[in-house]
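Researcher: Sequence recovery benchmark, item below. Answer with residues only.
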C-alpha cells in the first residue's frame, strides 16, 4: 500500500511538469534554492500555554544542510536535507532528522517527516493560491503568496525582497491561528510562525487576549551560506 502511495505521488508530480500555462521565470526558483552544501541556521522559540499554568518557553537552534543530488522513484532530481539541532550556540550540532526536497519546473515540494508538502507553485505572482496538502492525505489547505519588494530585516540580516506564504491566518475574540512562512531569494526559508491559541472566554476576560491554552512556534534565520 505504501509503495502504491508513493508511486501515485510520483506520477502526480511528473504530470505537473507537462501542464500548460505561463512559463516560470528563473527568478521564481531563487525562493526555493537547492544546491549541495547550501545551509541555513535558525533560532527556534516554542511557547506552550496550559490552563492556570505559567507559559513554558524553550529555545533551541536548527541547521539545514542541502545534501547530495539524488534520483527519486520516478526519475526526478531531489535533494536530501540533513537537519541538525543544538540547545545552545556553544554546543556542537547533533543529527536531528532527514527531509527531502524537489523542485520541478512548475512547483516545489518538501517532504517533512515523510509528509510531502507542496511549498510553491511556479510562476509565482501576488495572490497565487494552491493546496499545500495536494500530495498527502491531510485535508486540503489553501496557501496564498504575497510578493514584497520592501526590505525585511531579522536578526541583523536584511533581505531586499521576500515572499510571504500564508497558509492560515484567523483571529477572533476567542482564538488565534497563524501559519505563515517567509522566503528570500537565494536563501530560502527565513521566517516561520506556527500559532494556535485559545483565549479566555469568560465574561470578565473575553476580548482581552488572555491565553488559556495553545502553542506558538517561531523560527528565525540566524546565518546562511555554503559549506
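Model:
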Amino acid at each position: 500500500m505504501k509503495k502504491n502511495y508513493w508511486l501515485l505521488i510520483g506520477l502526480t508530480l511528473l504530470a505537473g511538469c507537462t501542464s500548460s500555462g505561463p512559463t516560470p521565470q528563473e527568478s521564481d526558483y531563487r525562493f526555493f534554492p537547492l544546491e549541495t552544501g547550501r545551509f541555513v541556521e535558525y533560532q527556534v522559540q516554542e511557547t506552550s500555554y496550559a490552563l492556570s499554568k505559567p507559559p513554558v518557553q524553550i529555545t533551541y537552534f536548527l541547521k539545514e544542510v542541502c545534501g547530495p543530488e539524488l534520483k527519486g522513484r520516478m526519475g526526478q532530481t531531489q535533494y536530501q536535507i540533513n537537519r541538525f539541532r543544538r540547545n545552545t550556540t556553544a554546543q556542537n550540532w547533533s543529527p536531528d532528522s532527514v527531509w527531502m526536497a524537489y523542485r520541478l519546473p512548475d512547483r516545489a515540494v518538501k517532504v517533512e517527516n515523510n509528509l510531502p508538502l507542496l511549498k510553491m507553485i511556479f510562476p509565482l505572482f501576488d495572490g497565487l493560491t494552491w493546496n499545500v496538502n495536494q500530495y498527502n492525505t491531510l485535508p486540503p489547505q489553501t496557501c496564498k503568496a504575497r510578493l514584497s519588494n520592501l526590505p525585511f530585516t531579522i536578526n541583523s540580516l536584511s533581505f531586499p525582497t521576500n515572499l510571504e506564504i500564508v497558509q492560515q491566518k484567523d483571529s477572533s475574540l476567542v482564538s488565534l491561528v497563524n501559519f505563515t512562512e517567509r522566503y528570500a531569494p537565494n536563501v530560502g526559508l527565513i521566517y516561520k510562525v506556527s500559532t494556535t491559541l485559545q483565549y479566555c472566554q469568560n465574561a470578565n476576560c473575553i476580548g482581552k487576549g488572555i491565553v488559556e491554552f495553545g502553542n506558538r512556534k517561531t523560527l528565525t534565520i540566524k546565518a546562511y551560506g555554503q559549506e
